[in-house]
Design brief:
Helix 2 links the parallel strand 1 and strand 2. It is globular and about 35 Å long. The chain has 108 residues and is mainly alpha-helical.
């Protein structure tokens, strides 16, 4: 993972963490993977990275957490107004796109 980050000269990154739900058991495998990714990004040559759940990341996109969830569920987002394929993306793909935007917006 670290080799890939450095080879691609990643300058900014965002790790979207699982959202906390008090009644959910969670996903230990995802938590372990998130931890490995965070450690790799922190050890890489990236100038900036941010990690967090939807409540942490949303304000960096000038969104509420509800807006973030609605966009992730398929609602149109003004940040993707010029993307003709937006309607074809799955929820995980949209979440990845929002995280990528967050990496850049949180650095400003």
């Amino acid at each position: 993972m670290l080799d890939v980050l450095d080879a691609q000269e990643v300058e900014r990154a965002c790790v979207k963490e699982a959202d906390y739900h008090p009644q959910a058991t969670g996903n230990p495998e995802r938590y372990r993977i998130e931890g490995v990714i965070q450690e790799a990004v922190a050890s890489s040559t990236a100038d900036h990275y941010i990690s967090g759940d939807v409540n942490t990341l949303s304000p960096h996109l000038d969104l509420t957490s509800s807006d973030f969830r609605e966009i992730k569920s398929g609602d149109r987002w003004s940040g993707a107004a010029n993307d003709p394929d937006w309607d074809t993306y799955s929820s995980p793909e949209i979440e990845s796109i929002l995280a990528a935007y967050t990496a850049f917006k949180s650095y400003d």
